[in-house]
Amino acid sequence: MSYQLNPALDAIQDPGKFANAAGNTEWVEFVRQACGAPRTSTWRKRVNVLLATPGTIPSGTAIATFDDNGKYPTDTKGKHAAVYLGHGPGGIRVLDQWNRKGRVSERTIFNKKLATHRVDSAKFYFVIE
């Protein structure tokens, strides 16, 4: 079972709305709170988002990077989670947040062929189950 965005899209633009107990606006908190996803230790890697035929993954689906064992990473190669909006020119369109920005925003994660960190290329994102 994948996890889907719960609130209306216009409701997620509130700064700090998806903060954790420490007040941090991390990407995982957004996905957990907005999509009802459980702890990252239970996440499993499913469909590769970039390789999926456009339209087969519903807009609002929770996605993340995973390690070679199909689990949410704990290594130094990068980890991130976001909400999939659709395929765009050269990558995937997502909603995400991070501490420095402090709010949810839309952006494109491009398919960078030579990316060394998972977060830097759309090819490393999979549907969370």
Number of strands: 6
Provide the gyration radius in Å.
13 Å
Q: Number of helical runs?
A: 1
Structural class call reads mainly beta
Helix content: under 10%
Protein name: BPSL0067 family protein
Brief account:
Helix content is 7%, strand content 26%. The protein is mainly β and 129 residues long.
Fold and architecture overview:
The chain has one domain (9-128). The model has no long low-confidence stretch (mean pLDDT 89). The protein is 7% helix and 26% strand. The protein is globular, with a radius of gyration of 13 Å. It is mostly beta strands and 129 residues long. The chain has one helix spanning 27-35, and strands at residues 45-48, 61-65, 81-88, 91-96, 105-110, 125-128. The protein has a 6-stranded antiparallel beta sheet. The protein has 1 helix and 6 strands; from the N terminus they run H-E-E-E-E-E-E. Strand 3 and strand 4 (91-96) form a beta hairpin. It comes from Pseudoduganella aquatica. This is BPSL0067 family protein. InterPro entries: Dae2/Tae2-like.
